Amino acid sequence: MQNTSNNLIEQEPVVSAVQQGQGAPVIFIHGLAASLFDWKDALPAISRAGYAGHAIDLLGHGWSQKPANIEDYTVEQVYSHFWRWVESLELSQPAVLVGHSLGGYLAMQAARRSPDSVKALVLLSPFFSRKQLPRLLQIRYHGPLINTVMIQHTPQWLIRSIIDLTSLSIRNGYVLPEDVRAQTAEDYKRSHPAIFNIPGSMEDLSEVGSGIPHPVLVAWGKRDVTLTPASFPPFAARFPHAQTAELPGGHVPHQSHPQDFNQALLSFLASLS
Asked: Which residues contact 173 (CB under 8 A, 6 or more apart)?
């Protein structure tokens, strides 16, 4: 895509994406304030197993388009940007969608809106309701749009310090690798600060599972402090054809414990055949 506009989302949006491997398509969708680098361990693993992995930087994230107006940062705009990219791939067969957190929300919407284009879902620590958030954040997202000035001017060294302190917290019970912490800080800083308004525009998908007939894997980290781990098992139970996997780590088990996540992912992919 050649359009370089950064402020008119009506035009064809700039998309940053990568592909690795050949075979049946598997599409990876990162979470809020992350990037396609989230999948640096998963992409080679599925490529070696004979799949074609595709990963995208969502609207406002990574090297993809970043509209100037905070009003443009809605989940519907993010979904539209994502799905136009999927259509541009011109895949010859339905894809498995792997979505982390916000990416899980987008994957479910794709399964609802374009069911024939989706073969199966892998929902990793899926964000499906604001009720999963800590109470203070639930209250915040019932209010007006977040003023992003303070976020925009937060230096990267401070973001990195916060990430390091959080990672070393005894509550987590594990430590994120140094390269993951560095990438997380860079992803936060590269993202447009208005992305933090996206959760306020999300609908509650707690009950949609019964209407999604695709095979589904719901996986989560047992030490997640971002979204309530207890929310995942009853959510998974609503899908007619669901497997579950509780993984070590917290909200990002694909980064903190990539071998465990990759094993669960590859086992699920193998079960589809």
From this structure: 223
